[in-house]
Design a protein that fits this description.
The complex is a heterodimer of chains A (about 450) and B (about 450).
Chain A lengths: L15 E2 L6 H10 L4 E6 L2 H15 L6 E2 L4 H6 L2 H14 L4 E6 L1 H5 L4 H6 L8 E5 L8 H16 L10 E4 L5 H13 L4 E3 L25 H6 L5 E5 L5 H11 L3 E4 L4 H16 L5 H21 L3 E6 L1 H13 L3 E7 L5 H12 L6 E3 L4 H10 L4 E4 L4 H7 L3 E3 L17 H23 L10
Helix pairs in contact in A: 1-2, 1-7, 7-10, 11-13, 11-17, 12-17, 13-14
Chain B lengths: L1 E3 L16 E4 L26 H9 L6 E5 L3 H5 L18 E2 L4 H6 L2 H15 L3 E6 L1 H5 L4 H12 L2 E6 L7 H16 L11 E6 L5 H12 L3 E6 L4 H5 L6 E4 L2 H15 L3 E3 L5 H14 L3 H29 L3 E6 L2 H14 L2 E7 L4 H10 L5 E4 L3 H10 L4 E4 L4 H6 L3 E4 L10 H16 L10
Parallel strand pairs in B: 3-4, 3-5, 5-6, 7-8, 7-9, 9-10, 11-12, 11-14, 12-13, 14-15
Antiparallel strand pairs in B: 1-2, 2-13
Classes of the chains: A alpha/beta (about 450), B alpha/beta (about 450).
């Protein structure tokens, strides 16, 4: 497997091999699915929409409903305005969403369709909405697309009223529905009223009812989004995926924000909880203290197995940095830390973490790819891979266990229902990591070294 | 005769879509027909993909080719190693190569980046065969990939083949044709080989090793296989293709065009076959022997099929008992596969009550109409809401489809079998008959459905 990956690292300026990112529109589609009764709409060729739906379905194992402008040759020459008009009419007639969230593609961006102008000219049925955002596939990555769509909802819908609603607005970052549920659980325990935007829980992890729901129960409602302008503050979780939307909200409606790393591992979750505590000014409930204590107890139990183990971590920037922080807390060495998403502060922030824990020889890379990471591993191997399913080729080629965290995970199940964030999420990460290391030991040690008690 | 739909489901179907859906009204076939082979309606949640997708799925299984996607990253990410085609040799095709075009390339043109990528690739790997896929914006920004490919073919004396597949330039079928053109560009270099007795197998992609199963039958019967398109193929095998005396076309939708081209350029006649189901596999094997004009082979094929059928009899009877009277829906890519599936269901006593395809042709739909029972719904380019409406109305027990249909079926509490890229076992040939029955049974008769609380 992957015999073509040669050990000698050489510079590539033009060729991308085995990416750790994908394009903006799929992120926008995921964000839009987190709005109640919203149909994401892809303004481009039909394949984009089909690919994105397939990609999301493979990760979440849920239907991902979205429509397309279905560009033809004509549209690519004369512009996609009439396609969008027809599409909107058909969508409202047939699928009856409350809101259509339009995002662009590389094609509609390149031919210069002006969504704002096109939508302004449209006749939108009473009580229905069309929002939009620009997601040029040749800029940033799916993470930027996600952020741009969230900002699109704010730009198009959020309003300021006369008085505050006493809620905080939470931007969850590019995470699974299981993570969103964990945030909500913690916010509820802390008794903080909030609006989560977007809220993919109850949509991309909807329960089995024996009925197909085009629009499942979950998702932020339009009313809630409009009301975001009356929140007391916003909390951006994940600097890359959430902070830009918090900035948009601040700029547009003067809502102050605070941004945090994704609450993954002990310290980042501490910061999250402390921030919530600053808002409520109440004592932190014991149940949360208890969870934290359990997590640290677990980390002590497993530390002989994790200490000094080297890991290669790849995926989306916020998630990768969150995992990196946690493996450092476990005494492990995040030897290679790679994201495909461009953005220079990723490397700076990773380097800060390396420095803080005093680990040497670790490399962080933005705009990287898995081919390069594989070459590094060939030069200096690691004990563990942490990332999405596309790490499995390297895992197989180098006989390194792969712990699946992040996006996309298309060869396993259940991951989207349960969290990696919060103390509970960290317990799961700790379990995954130790199980992988110990399973590897069991299957690779000499027969006489096989131990029942570990 | 067949009538346009008029039931309670009427309101759930767009006016524009009604001619693409028919009911079989009474026995027999009128040939009045369904509207098919047209562009999707803008705004529809179509299950269809694009030109690039069609081209990529046909060419991807060529194991020792470098598949470079020229465009922004998405198209490369979504098609990275998802096809499930197996290789007995190289695994190069399981990597993802692209030019990952960025904003600056969109403004100044992407040709230089493509050239740089080709240089990097050729210098490091000494490839023999490279496919360069042009996605949506490549033509729009004015890149001349024909010229670039020719330049590199000449400079390095290797095959650098342009695959012009902008998503908007047609549908998936257009992509099949673009792929076939690309294959012909390779084959034309070697078209003067002396003829020998033996066949090429076209339109099988070796999903789950199906090509190997078919090749084994040929070996048993004594029919040499010269080359395969494109399952488990490589440049060396492609070079020999023109020496074959017969082309056997398995997936008619994707490869009839190639067969016609090879007939014109190399004088190789072709026949259409299907290796799905007992009836079609048997008929196809005998048909191939007949087409080769060898009476001895024909006898051997008949004896071989009889033996295989005998072996299967008791297993089929076992499953028939478990599955008799169930109702099935079919939604697959091409018409030929749908036809085979209906026949397989007929053998098992399963009623096909809904059947549709993404890219079926008029003549496919005529055959479908002639072999289904009265009241069956037939749809072209169906969208999820139509599938849902008709599956609910007809109280379907199992859906056979692809990745996007699986969660739809599950949400409705309907069993599912993937007959596309995610098939778990080979579904072709006599082995496939057993696997297919087993998969259908394992899903339909699984206890898990009993826990759904409506």
């Amino acid at each position: 497997m992957l015999n073509y990956t040669n050990k000698k690292v050489y510079e590539r300026t033009a060729l991308r091999i085995n990416p750790v990112k994908t394009c903006q529109p799929v992120g926008a589609m995921y964000a839009a699915l987190g709005v109640h009764r919203c149909l994401p709409h892809s303004h481009g060729s039909q394949g984009c929409c089909a690919f994105h739906r397939m990609f999301l379905t493979r990760h979440f194992k849920e239907p991902a409903m979205a429509s397309s402008s279905s560009f033809t040759e004509g549209a690519s020459v004369f512009g996609g305005g009439s396609n969008l008009k027809t599409a909107a009419k058909n969508i409202f007639d047939l699928y009856d969403p409350d809101i259509i969230a339009v995002h662009t593609t590389c094609l509609s961006e390149t031919i210069g369709d002006d969504l704002n102008a096109l939508i302004t000219e449209m006749k939108i049925p009473e009580g229905k909405y069309i929002v939009h955002c620009n997601t040029p596939s040749y800029k940033g990555s799916h993470i930027d697309g996600y952020t741009n769509m969230v900002s699109g909802f704010i730009n198009n819908l959020a309003e300021k009223g006369d008085e505050t609603n006493g809620k905080i607005c939470v931007f969850p970052g590019f995470v699974n529905p299981g993570d969103v549920r964990e945030y909500k659980r913690l916010l509820n325990i802390m008794k903080i009223p909030f609006t989560m935007l977007p809220d993919t829980s109850g949509v991309m992890d909807s329960p089995m009812t024996g009925k197909f729901e085009m629009y499942p129960k979950g998702g932020t409602t339009i009313k809630e989004i409009k009301d975001i302008g009356n929140c007391t503050m916003s909390l951006a979780l994940g600097l890359k995926a959430s902070e830009p939307s918090a900035q948009v909200l601040e700029k547009k409606l003067k809502i102050p924000y605070k941004s945090l790393d994704l609450p993954m591992g002990v310290e980042a979750t501490d910061k999250f909880i402390m921030t919530l505590q600053e808002i409520t000014k109440e004592e932190i409930p014991y149940s949360i203290e208890e969870e934290r204590g359990q997590l640290v107890d677990i980390m002590i139990d497993i530390h002989p197995y994790t200490y000094g183990k080297k890991a290669a971590i790849f995926g989306d920037p916020d998630t990768v940095l969150g995992i990196t922080a946690f493996v450092l807390e476990l005494g492990m060495i995040p030897k290679y830390v790679v994201t495909g998403t461009p953005g220079t502060d990723f490397v700076e922030r990773a380097n800060l973490l390396f420095k803080k824990f005093g680990v040497d020889g670790c490399i962080a890379k933005e705009s990287g790819d898995l081919f390069l990471m594989h070459q590094w591993i060939k030069n200096e191997p690691v004990d563990l891979l942490i990332g999405g399913s596309y790490g499995k080729h390297i895992a197989r080629a180098e006989d390194i266990p792969l712990v699946r965290m992040g996006f996309p995970i298309i060869d396993r199940y259940i991951h989207s229902y349960v969290p990696l964030v919060g103390y509970k999420g960290a317990m799961r990460m700790a379990e995954f990591i130790t199980n992988a290391l110990m399973d590897y030991q069991d299957s690779h040690c000499k027969e006489e070294d096989l131990e029942v008690v570990m | 005769m067949n009538v346009p739909i008029q039931t309670e489901s009427d309101s759930k179907v767009l006016e524009d879509r009604k001619k693409s859906i028919i009911f079989k009204y009474e026995d027999g076939c009128t040939g009045k027909g369904i509207r098919c082979e047209v562009d999707s309606v803008s705004g529809a949640v179509s299950q269809r993909a694009c030109v690039y997708c069609g081209a990529r799925v046909v060419l991807n299984p060529i194991t020792d080719a470098f598949h470079i996607v020229h465009g922004p990253i998405g198209c490369a990410s979504y098609t990275w190693d998802i096809r499930g085609s197996l290789s007995s040799g190289e695994d190069l095709y399981r990597n993802s190569f692209s030019t990952d075009l960025r904003e600056k390339d969109i403004i100044f043109g992407g040709e230089r980046k493509l050239e740089a990528a080709l240089e990097e690739l050729i210098n490091k790997y000494k490839p023999k065969l490279i496919f360069v896929y042009a996605t949506c914006i490549v033509g729009v920004i004015g890149d001349d990939i024909d010229a670039v490919c020719k330049k590199f073919s000449d400079k390095y004396q290797i095959h650098v083949i342009p695959v012009k597949s902008p998503g908007f330039s047609g549908n998936k079928s257009t992509g099949y044709r673009m792929a076939c053109n690309a294959i012909m560009q390779v084959l034309n270099t070697y078209k003067e080989q002396p003829k020998q007795k033996g066949i090429n197998i076209l339109g099988d992609y070796n999903l789950a090793g199906e090509m190997w199963i078919i090749k084994n039958y040929m070996k048993q019967i004594g029919i040499p296989v010269i080359s395969t398109f494109t399952g488990d193929s490589n440049l060396e095998s492609m070079k020999k293709a023109s020496s074959a005396s017969l082309n056997v076309v398995q997936c008619a939708g994707s490869s009839t065009y190639l067969a016609n081209q090879m007939k014109d350029a190399m004088g190789i006649p072709y026949i259409k076959v299907s290796f799905f189901g007992l009836e079609d596999t048997t008929a196809s094997l005998i048909h191939i022997a007949e087409a080769l004009g060898d009476e001895k082979l024909r006898e051997k094929a008949i004896i071989y099929c009889e033996k295989k059928q005998k072996e299967l009899e008791s297993t089929i009877e076992q499953y028939r008992k478990k599955l008799y009277g169930k109702k099935a829906a079919i939604y697959v890519g091409g018409g030929f596969k749908a036809i085979s599936l209906i026949r397989q269901f007929n053998t098992l006593g399963i009623h096909t009550v809904v059947v549709g395809t993404q890219t079926g042709k008029k003549e496919d739909y005529e055959i479908i109409e002639s072999i289904v029972e009265k009241d069956t719904v037939i749809l072209d380019d169906a969208n999820p809401s139509e599938l849902e409406t008709f599956m609910k109305e007809r109280v379907v027990d199992i859906l056979v489809g692809g990745v996007k249909e699986r969660p739809l079926a599950y949400k409705m509490g309907i069993a599912f079998c993937d007959h596309n890229h995610e098939r778990k076992h080979p579904l072709a040939g006599f082995e496939g008959v057993i696997n297919f029955m087993k998969e259908i049974n394992d899903s339909v008769n699984n206890p898990v459905w009993n826990y759904i609380r409506q």
